[in-house]
Amino acid sequence: MAHWFHRNPLKATAQVKFDLKLVASDSQTIKICSDLRQARLRLLELLPDANHEIDVVEPALTLYLALLRGLIEVPEGQSSDWSKLRHAIRFRWTHSVLGNPPESG
């Protein structure tokens, strides 16, 4: 009975392709999206296996989060604080216990 109310700290998301060809017009944005896709795939390969050392997982997570931050914030020296691309990608989360398909919202 102790394991029945287990909360999984890692919730699943729907597959995110970071495909912004209709929105992205410059090569720098397309490069960030490509790097994000590769970093996410690498991180998703590492997370399910608990045998990986922290020295392997931490750099992959740091790279992925840095690229996500680059998608949200504009580069230094520009007038706005937020990137116009921050709403272009939507993450959909599952319920951690139920494992249902991701819900919109």
From TrEMBL:
InterPro entries: BRO1_sf, BROX. It comes from the Eukaryota. Gene3D superfamilies: alix/aip1 like domains (1.25.40.280). PANTHER family: BRO1 DOMAIN-CONTAINING PROTEIN BROX. This is Uncharacterized protein. It comes from Cherax quadricarinatus.
